[in-house]
Design goal:
- The chain is an alpha+beta fold and about 325 residues long.
- It folds into 3 domains: about 1-115, Rossmann fold; about 140-205, no CATH class; about 210-315, D-amino Acid Aminotransferase, Chain A, domain 1.
- The protein has helices at about 10-25, 90-105, 115-125, 125-135, 150-155, 235-240, 255-270, 300-315, and strands spanning about 1-5, 25-30, 40-45, 50-60, 65, 70-75, 110-115, 145, 165, 175, 180, 185-190, 205, 215-220, 225-230, 250, 275-280, 285-290.
- Helix 1 packs across helix 8.
Protein backbone atom coordinates (compact mmCIF):
# COMPACT_ATOMS: atom_id res chain seq x y z
CA UNK A 1 0.00 0.00 0.00
CA UNK A 2 1.22 3.48 -0.94
CA UNK A 3 0.93 6.96 0.55
CA UNK A 4 0.21 9.44 -2.25
CA UNK A 5 1.69 12.90 -1.63
CA UNK A 6 0.24 15.66 -3.80
CA UNK A 7 2.41 18.76 -3.77
CA UNK A 8 4.71 20.95 -5.83
CA UNK A 9 8.28 19.85 -6.59
CA UNK A 10 9.80 22.23 -4.03
CA UNK A 11 8.00 21.70 -0.75
CA UNK A 12 10.37 21.38 2.21
CA UNK A 13 7.50 20.67 4.60
CA UNK A 14 6.29 17.69 2.59
CA UNK A 15 9.90 16.53 2.36
CA UNK A 16 9.98 16.08 6.15
CA UNK A 17 6.97 13.76 6.11
CA UNK A 18 8.21 11.82 3.09
CA UNK A 19 11.60 11.29 4.76
CA UNK A 20 9.89 10.01 7.92
CA UNK A 21 7.75 7.58 5.91
CA UNK A 22 10.81 6.40 3.99
CA UNK A 23 12.59 5.67 7.28
CA UNK A 24 9.61 3.50 8.23
CA UNK A 25 9.84 1.67 4.87
CA UNK A 26 6.41 2.95 3.88
CA UNK A 27 5.84 3.14 0.11
CA UNK A 28 5.43 6.78 -0.99
CA UNK A 29 4.52 8.25 -4.38
CA UNK A 30 4.98 11.99 -4.77
CA UNK A 31 3.14 13.65 -7.66
CA UNK A 32 2.26 17.22 -8.59
CA UNK A 33 -1.19 17.53 -10.21
CA UNK A 34 0.27 20.57 -11.96
CA UNK A 35 2.15 18.13 -14.22
CA UNK A 36 -1.18 16.99 -15.71
CA UNK A 37 -1.72 16.65 -18.62
CA UNK A 38 1.71 17.40 -20.11
CA UNK A 39 3.92 15.04 -18.07
CA UNK A 40 1.44 13.19 -15.87
CA UNK A 41 -1.12 10.83 -17.36
CA UNK A 42 -3.99 8.78 -16.06
CA UNK A 43 -6.25 5.96 -17.20
CA UNK A 44 -9.09 4.60 -15.07
CA UNK A 45 -12.16 2.45 -15.69
CA UNK A 46 -15.43 1.79 -13.91
CA UNK A 47 -18.39 -0.37 -14.91
CA UNK A 48 -20.39 -3.48 -14.04
CA UNK A 49 -17.21 -5.40 -13.27
CA UNK A 50 -15.58 -2.54 -11.30
CA UNK A 51 -17.56 -0.83 -8.54
CA UNK A 52 -14.83 1.74 -8.00
CA UNK A 53 -12.30 3.33 -10.32
CA UNK A 54 -9.42 1.05 -11.32
CA UNK A 55 -6.36 2.29 -13.12
CA UNK A 56 -3.13 4.18 -12.55
CA UNK A 57 -1.47 7.56 -12.37
CA UNK A 58 1.74 7.67 -14.40
CA UNK A 59 4.27 10.37 -13.53
CA UNK A 60 7.72 11.19 -14.82
CA UNK A 61 9.48 9.11 -12.17
CA UNK A 62 6.84 6.89 -10.57
CA UNK A 63 3.52 5.20 -11.36
CA UNK A 64 0.91 4.27 -8.80
CA UNK A 65 -2.15 2.04 -9.03
CA UNK A 66 -5.31 3.64 -7.69
CA UNK A 67 -6.15 0.46 -5.78
CA UNK A 68 -2.81 0.64 -3.91
CA UNK A 69 -3.34 4.11 -2.42
CA UNK A 70 -3.84 3.82 1.34
CA UNK A 71 -3.89 7.58 2.11
CA UNK A 72 -3.39 10.94 0.45
CA UNK A 73 -1.34 13.83 1.86
CA UNK A 74 -2.79 16.84 0.04
CA UNK A 75 -0.23 19.57 0.62
CA UNK A 76 0.22 22.32 -1.96
CA UNK A 77 -0.39 20.94 -5.45
CA UNK A 78 0.30 23.15 -8.43
CA UNK A 79 -2.32 24.31 -10.94
CA UNK A 80 -2.77 22.30 -14.13
CA UNK A 81 -0.29 23.45 -16.78
CA UNK A 82 -2.09 23.45 -20.12
CA UNK A 83 -0.18 23.28 -23.43
CA UNK A 84 0.94 26.83 -24.38
CA UNK A 85 -0.11 26.42 -28.02
CA UNK A 86 -3.79 26.26 -27.10
CA UNK A 87 -5.94 29.34 -27.61
CA UNK A 88 -7.11 31.13 -24.49
CA UNK A 89 -10.65 29.83 -24.97
CA UNK A 90 -9.49 26.24 -25.51
CA UNK A 91 -7.10 26.50 -22.55
CA UNK A 92 -9.98 27.52 -20.24
CA UNK A 93 -11.98 24.54 -21.46
CA UNK A 94 -9.02 22.16 -21.04
CA UNK A 95 -8.41 23.51 -17.52
CA UNK A 96 -12.03 22.84 -16.55
CA UNK A 97 -11.95 19.37 -18.09
CA UNK A 98 -8.71 18.55 -16.26
CA UNK A 99 -10.27 19.59 -12.96
CA UNK A 100 -13.41 17.57 -13.59
CA UNK A 101 -11.58 14.50 -14.89
CA UNK A 102 -8.23 14.26 -13.14
CA UNK A 103 -9.35 16.14 -10.03
CA UNK A 104 -12.61 14.26 -9.83
CA UNK A 105 -10.86 10.91 -10.15
CA UNK A 106 -8.54 11.74 -7.26
CA UNK A 107 -11.35 13.08 -5.10
CA UNK A 108 -13.26 9.81 -5.50
CA UNK A 109 -10.50 7.72 -3.90
CA UNK A 110 -12.02 5.89 -0.90
CA UNK A 111 -9.09 6.39 1.46
CA UNK A 112 -7.85 8.65 4.24
CA UNK A 113 -7.25 12.23 3.09
CA UNK A 114 -5.12 14.76 4.97
CA UNK A 115 -7.19 16.70 4.02
CA UNK A 116 -9.77 16.15 1.30
CA UNK A 117 -9.73 19.35 -0.82
CA UNK A 118 -13.49 19.80 -0.56
CA UNK A 119 -13.22 19.88 3.24
CA UNK A 120 -10.28 22.27 2.98
CA UNK A 121 -12.29 24.59 0.76
CA UNK A 122 -15.21 24.72 3.16
CA UNK A 123 -13.03 25.48 6.19
CA UNK A 124 -11.04 28.15 4.32
CA UNK A 125 -13.96 30.62 4.12
CA UNK A 126 -13.59 32.92 7.18
CA UNK A 127 -17.36 33.42 7.67
CA UNK A 128 -17.85 29.64 7.78
CA UNK A 129 -14.75 29.07 9.91
CA UNK A 130 -15.58 31.73 12.51
CA UNK A 131 -19.21 30.64 12.80
CA UNK A 132 -18.18 27.00 13.21
CA UNK A 133 -15.56 27.98 15.80
CA UNK A 134 -18.10 29.97 17.80
CA UNK A 135 -20.58 27.06 17.72
CA UNK A 136 -17.74 24.78 18.85
CA UNK A 137 -17.26 26.82 22.02
CA UNK A 138 -14.17 28.78 20.93
CA UNK A 139 -14.00 32.52 21.59
CA UNK A 140 -13.70 34.70 18.49
CA UNK A 141 -13.20 38.49 18.38
CA UNK A 142 -16.11 40.68 17.38
CA UNK A 143 -16.04 40.65 13.58
CA UNK A 144 -17.81 42.53 10.80
CA UNK A 145 -17.89 41.49 7.15
CA UNK A 146 -19.36 44.20 4.96
CA UNK A 147 -19.12 46.31 1.84
CA UNK A 148 -20.91 49.25 3.50
CA UNK A 149 -18.49 52.05 4.54
CA UNK A 150 -20.95 53.46 7.07
CA UNK A 151 -21.39 50.07 8.75
CA UNK A 152 -17.61 49.69 8.87
CA UNK A 153 -17.05 53.13 10.43
CA UNK A 154 -19.83 52.53 12.98
CA UNK A 155 -18.40 49.12 13.91
CA UNK A 156 -14.83 50.39 14.37
CA UNK A 157 -16.00 53.47 16.29
CA UNK A 158 -17.69 51.21 18.85
CA UNK A 159 -14.56 49.12 19.52
CA UNK A 160 -12.17 49.77 22.43
CA UNK A 161 -9.64 52.33 21.29
CA UNK A 162 -11.63 52.87 18.10
CA UNK A 163 -9.28 50.58 16.21
CA UNK A 164 -9.86 47.34 14.28
CA UNK A 165 -7.77 44.71 12.56
CA UNK A 166 -8.37 44.76 8.82
CA UNK A 167 -7.77 41.32 7.34
CA UNK A 168 -8.15 39.88 3.86
CA UNK A 169 -10.73 37.11 3.63
CA UNK A 170 -8.09 34.45 3.05
CA UNK A 171 -7.19 35.63 -0.44
CA UNK A 172 -4.02 36.94 -2.08
CA UNK A 173 -3.59 40.09 -4.17
CA UNK A 174 -1.72 40.30 -7.49
CA UNK A 175 1.61 42.10 -7.27
CA UNK A 176 1.90 45.46 -9.02
CA UNK A 177 5.10 44.22 -10.68
CA UNK A 178 4.36 40.79 -12.12
CA UNK A 179 0.79 39.78 -11.18
CA UNK A 180 2.11 37.04 -8.88
CA UNK A 181 -0.11 36.53 -5.83
CA UNK A 182 1.10 38.19 -2.64
CA UNK A 183 -0.23 37.96 0.88
CA UNK A 184 -2.00 40.92 2.43
CA UNK A 185 -0.80 41.44 6.00
CA UNK A 186 -3.13 42.41 8.83
CA UNK A 187 -3.29 46.18 9.37
CA UNK A 188 -4.82 48.49 11.97
CA UNK A 189 -7.74 50.61 10.78
CA UNK A 190 -9.47 53.61 12.40
CA UNK A 191 -12.86 55.09 11.47
CA UNK A 192 -11.46 58.10 9.59
CA UNK A 193 -9.39 55.79 7.37
CA UNK A 194 -12.47 54.01 5.99
CA UNK A 195 -13.58 55.49 2.68
CA UNK A 196 -16.03 54.80 -0.15
CA UNK A 197 -13.76 52.15 -1.72
CA UNK A 198 -15.06 49.69 0.89
CA UNK A 199 -18.22 49.46 -1.23
CA UNK A 200 -16.34 47.77 -4.08
CA UNK A 201 -16.00 44.31 -2.48
CA UNK A 202 -16.34 42.40 0.80
CA UNK A 203 -14.08 43.39 3.69
CA UNK A 204 -13.39 41.91 7.12
CA UNK A 205 -12.95 44.10 10.20
CA UNK A 206 -12.12 42.47 13.51
CA UNK A 207 -11.86 43.68 17.07
CA UNK A 208 -8.24 44.50 17.93
CA UNK A 209 -7.26 42.16 20.78
CA UNK A 210 -4.30 43.47 22.83
CA UNK A 211 -2.18 40.34 22.85
CA UNK A 212 0.44 39.09 25.25
CA UNK A 213 1.43 36.61 22.56
CA UNK A 214 -0.05 34.43 19.81
CA UNK A 215 -0.42 30.68 19.69
CA UNK A 216 -0.12 28.47 16.63
CA UNK A 217 -2.08 25.32 17.45
CA UNK A 218 -1.72 22.41 15.05
CA UNK A 219 -4.18 19.51 15.17
CA UNK A 220 -3.17 16.18 13.62
CA UNK A 221 -5.94 13.65 14.07
CA UNK A 222 -6.71 13.77 17.82
CA UNK A 223 -3.26 15.13 18.74
CA UNK A 224 -2.76 18.83 19.50
CA UNK A 225 0.56 20.68 19.28
CA UNK A 226 0.78 24.28 20.42
CA UNK A 227 3.47 26.94 20.73
CA UNK A 228 3.48 30.51 21.92
CA UNK A 229 4.68 32.99 19.30
CA UNK A 230 6.33 36.09 20.75
CA UNK A 231 6.76 39.08 18.47
CA UNK A 232 10.11 40.86 18.40
CA UNK A 233 9.32 43.78 16.12
CA UNK A 234 6.58 46.32 15.49
CA UNK A 235 5.60 44.58 12.24
CA UNK A 236 5.31 41.12 13.80
CA UNK A 237 3.23 42.48 16.69
CA UNK A 238 0.58 43.37 14.11
CA UNK A 239 1.00 40.27 11.90
CA UNK A 240 3.67 37.71 12.78
CA UNK A 241 3.98 36.64 9.12
CA UNK A 242 5.48 40.04 8.32
CA UNK A 243 8.74 39.36 10.19
CA UNK A 244 9.50 35.72 10.93
CA UNK A 245 13.12 36.53 11.83
CA UNK A 246 12.00 38.48 14.90
CA UNK A 247 9.86 35.69 16.35
CA UNK A 248 10.60 33.42 19.30
CA UNK A 249 8.63 30.27 20.14
CA UNK A 250 7.79 28.32 23.25
CA UNK A 251 5.75 25.07 23.31
CA UNK A 252 2.71 25.42 25.55
CA UNK A 253 -0.22 23.51 26.98
CA UNK A 254 -3.71 23.91 25.55
CA UNK A 255 -6.46 24.78 28.06
CA UNK A 256 -9.05 22.00 28.33
CA UNK A 257 -11.95 24.13 27.10
CA UNK A 258 -9.91 25.24 24.07
CA UNK A 259 -8.88 21.65 23.30
CA UNK A 260 -12.53 20.56 23.49
CA UNK A 261 -13.53 23.34 21.08
CA UNK A 262 -10.75 22.45 18.64
CA UNK A 263 -11.79 18.79 18.59
CA UNK A 264 -15.39 19.84 17.93
CA UNK A 265 -14.29 22.17 15.12
CA UNK A 266 -12.16 19.51 13.37
CA UNK A 267 -15.04 17.05 13.66
CA UNK A 268 -17.50 19.58 12.20
CA UNK A 269 -15.28 20.15 9.16
CA UNK A 270 -14.08 16.55 8.87
CA UNK A 271 -10.44 17.65 9.00
CA UNK A 272 -7.52 15.38 9.85
CA UNK A 273 -5.14 18.35 9.93
CA UNK A 274 -5.57 22.04 10.65
CA UNK A 275 -3.44 24.97 11.80
CA UNK A 276 -5.21 27.46 14.07
CA UNK A 277 -4.05 30.90 15.19
CA UNK A 278 -5.06 32.32 18.55
CA UNK A 279 -4.44 35.67 20.24
CA UNK A 280 -3.89 35.38 24.00
CA UNK A 281 -4.42 38.50 26.11
CA UNK A 282 -2.87 39.39 29.47
CA UNK A 283 -5.71 37.59 31.28
CA UNK A 284 -4.89 34.33 29.49
CA UNK A 285 -8.03 34.38 27.29
CA UNK A 286 -7.62 32.62 23.92
CA UNK A 287 -9.30 34.18 20.85
CA UNK A 288 -9.36 32.22 17.59
CA UNK A 289 -8.61 34.43 14.59
CA UNK A 290 -7.64 32.06 11.76
CA UNK A 291 -8.47 28.54 10.56
CA UNK A 292 -6.01 27.24 7.96
CA UNK A 293 -6.48 23.60 6.90
CA UNK A 294 -3.31 23.78 4.79
CA UNK A 295 -1.23 25.86 7.19
CA UNK A 296 2.52 25.57 7.65
CA UNK A 297 3.95 23.94 10.79
CA UNK A 298 7.66 23.30 10.26
CA UNK A 299 8.66 26.88 11.13
CA UNK A 300 8.33 26.12 14.88
CA UNK A 301 11.58 24.25 15.70
CA UNK A 302 10.48 22.38 18.84
CA UNK A 303 7.32 21.05 17.17
CA UNK A 304 8.84 20.07 13.82
CA UNK A 305 9.72 16.48 14.76
CA UNK A 306 6.57 15.72 16.81
CA UNK A 307 4.24 16.97 14.07
CA UNK A 308 6.21 15.16 11.37
CA UNK A 309 5.86 11.90 13.28
CA UNK A 310 2.17 12.48 13.99
CA UNK A 311 1.45 13.06 10.29
CA UNK A 312 3.42 9.94 9.35
CA UNK A 313 1.49 7.93 11.96
CA UNK A 314 -1.78 9.16 10.47
CA UNK A 315 -0.84 8.47 6.85
CA UNK A 316 0.67 5.07 7.68
CA UNK A 317 -2.29 3.67 9.54
CA UNK A 318 -4.10 0.71 7.92
CA UNK A 319 -6.58 1.67 5.21
Amino acid sequence: MTVLVLTQPTDATADLVIAELNERSVSVCRLDPGDFPESLSMAARIGPDHLSWEGALCGQHRDVSLSEIRSVYYRRPGAFRIHPDMTEQDARWAQAEAQAGFGGLLYSLPCLWVNHPHRNAWATYPPVALATAARSGLAVPRTLITNDPNEAREFVSALPGKVAAYKALGTTHPSDRDDRPQALWTTQVRPDEIDASVARTAHQFQEWVPKAYEVRLTAVGHDLFAAEIHAGSAASRIDFRADYDSLTYKPCQVPEHVAAGVHMLTYAFGLQYVALDFLVNSDGDWYLIDVNPGGQWAFIPDLRVPITRALADLLERPA
